[in-house]
Write a structure and sequence with these properties.
It is built from 15 helices and 11 strands. By secondary structure, the chain is an alpha/beta fold. The chain has 2 domains: about 1-85, Nonspecific Lipid-transfer Protein, Chain A (2-Layer Sandwich), CATH 3.30.1050; about 110-380 and about 390-400, Rossmann fold, CATH 3.40.50.150.
Length: about 400
């Protein structure tokens, strides 16, 4: 077992040659990898923890770390960077494990009733939990950076304004936000562009706080937040936006999502979809699906564009904001670590470790791995009145100088 561990970790280290680290085993033996000073020390407290890593790869490692059978001292982000080099997470899994993962996938498919339970699993952890490490606007999606050194609060407002300009919002228009979270997008659009807004979320705590924030902003007659599944929405809207919700729709429900978006957007209307994705279709992450986002699916860009085309939605602009999400997640992770005592007291050590894996692993996957953050702007049918250039998106370019 020790020899197999050393061989596998040596292979990983060769893939990222500039990382040096040390491994300590349950019996006191140490293994050194790389030539420099160790950037992190990985301690396996039990022989079983090594066996789980060798048998189940990332999934086994994450479960053993959550259980406290593996400790990490030093630069956790470099460990995550090393880990994402392992592309085939299904390698070595037993037939029983594969059946278990298949059952979990089927059990969490996003039919209306299950979708509520899936969203509750992640977003109903409590507004107080998210308030600890999100910015003051309670924005839980990729920020937009001009320079990279902005405070998170500033970068999130820049994101909202960037999207408003991509949507060419005009005073008096009605904007639909599918998966509106705590209402940040609609509040910004109403206050700065004079639109009316309707948003929906499947999280009761989100909806309640979003409604309160609308009242606090004096926008009761301008913005409405509904606790409901997007599939129950009715009416037609001038503009459509969905920020970080599409990942929860599920692979089997992508065609239905696009048909619904097309039915809600006026003919010629402009929409924007912000979603995590990849260049090509890939597996569902087993650990993330079980512990963080049940029912989630990260689509390929091809799947998004093809599904739009089949319903008459016309993609007009596609942008990949991958580095922006890496920065956002790194800032979230740093804020999370500053509040470990409160989070541990509210939940437990296992929860702390689980979310540390999630935030750091996601940041590493955007910075070094296969995750992308797409802005896909589209129209419902053809629209020949849109600007011929992107100049309107850079109207505040002088601020960057």
């Amino acid at each position: 077992m020790k020899n197999e561990l050393q061989q596998r970790l040596s292979l990983f280290q060769q893939l990222v040659a500039d990382i040096s680290f040390q491994v300590r085993l349950w019996d006191g033996e140490r293994m050194d990898f790389g030539d420099g000073k160790p950037e992190f020390v990985l301690t396996f407290k039990t022989q079983r923890a090594v066996g789980r890593l060798l048998a189940s790869g990332e999934f086994g490692f994450c479960e053993e770390y959550m259980a406290g059978n593996i400790d990490v001292d030093g630069d956790f982000k470099q460990l995550m960077r090393l880990g994402i080099q392992v592309e085939d997470q299904h390698a070595g899994l037993s037939g029983k494990s594969r059946v278990g993962f298949l059952f979990n996938y089927i059990r969490t498919l996003n039919f209306p009733g299950q979708a509520r339970r899936n969203i509750s699993h992640h977003y109903d952890l409590g507004n107080d939990f998210y308030r600890l490490w999100l910015d003051k606007s309670m924005t839980y999606s990729c920020a937009y950076f001009h320079r990279g050194d902005e405070a998170l609060e500033e970068a999130q407002q820049q994101k909202y304004d960037y999207i408003c300009r991509k949507l060419a919002l005009q005073k008096g228009e009605i904007l639909l936000d599918v998966g509106c979270g705590w209402g940040g997008m609609l509040i910004h659009a109403a206050q700065n562009y004079g639109v009316k807004g309707v948003g929906c979320t499947l999280s009761r705590p989100q909806a309640a706080l979003a409604q309160q924030r609308v009242r606090d902003a004096g926008l009761q007659g301008q913005v409405a937040i509904q606790y409901m599944d997007y599939r129950g929405l009715r009416g037609q809207f001038d503009k459509f936006v969905s920020i970080g919700m599409f990942e929860h729709a599920g692979r089997n429900f992508i065609p239905g999502y696009m048909k619904k978006a097309q039915s809600l957007l006026k003919t010629g209307g402009l929409g924007l979809l912000q979603t995590i994705g990849r260049e090509s279709r890939s597996y569902v992450n087993l650990w993330t699906s079980k512990y963080i986002f049940p029912g989630g699916y990260l689509p390929s860009l091809d799947e998004v564009v093809r599904a739009m085309g089949k319903t008459g939605l016309v993609p007009i602009d596609i942008e990949n904001l991958r580095p922006h999400y890496a920065l956002t997640l790194e800032k979230w992770s740093a804020r999370f670590e500053r509040h470990i005592p409160e989070i541990r007291n509210k939940f437990d050590e296992r929860f702390v470790r689980m979310w540390r894996l999630f935030l750091n692993g996601s940041a590493a996957s955007f910075r070094y791995g296969s995750l992308r953050l797409y802005h896909v702007a589209f129209t419902n049918g053809l629209n020949n009145t849109l600007p011929l250039s992107r100049a309107s998106l850079w109207e505040d370019a002088t601020k960057l100088c």
